[in-house]
Amino acid sequence: TSDIAIRSNEDFTSLSYSGNLATRGLDLGTLLDDTDNFGQIAFDMKVVGSGTDLESLDLTMDGIVQRLDFKNYNYRNLELAGTLVKKRFNGNLLLDDPNLFVDFNGLLDFSGSIPYLNFTAQIDDANLSALNFYQRDTLYQSVLSTIISVEGHVESLNKIEGEMAAFSTTYREILPEDGFIQNQYHTETISLRSYL
Fold this sequence. Notes:
3% of the residues lie in helices and 70% in strands.
């Protein structure tokens, strides 16, 4: 559903819009042509902006994503506030899911040939097993908590130019039935610097 005011010039080369946009089950995987990783999305978002494509997009958004299917896991309770301008997102994301808490603040810039990232994120109790990211074995769930800070150009985990740091990082292997911790590893600081 939508309640959006749209303004355009005569040939529709310039658009501006403002209002509310909501969906209860948009097939994001089909829209992005990536059904292996993405499924449905449901959100309720207030938007104000202009542009007709990612190159000209200037969008301010504030709202809630009730559901986002990614890697066969249904993420819930995501609050999003920020701007998306010419392939640059600058803002906050708060995710309070039963298997993951994330408080993200920063910039994700995909406007250049190599993405530039400058953000800090607090990650608490990320159940990597339930989220379908990592499963050491079938008995235990892998749970990670950390505060991560990234500043630099990141093409992939193998090609980074800049600085990354993780603080107060704890990795636990937990028996789901009773919460018994089989293994726990903790480090105060992990710091990586790479300049190519």
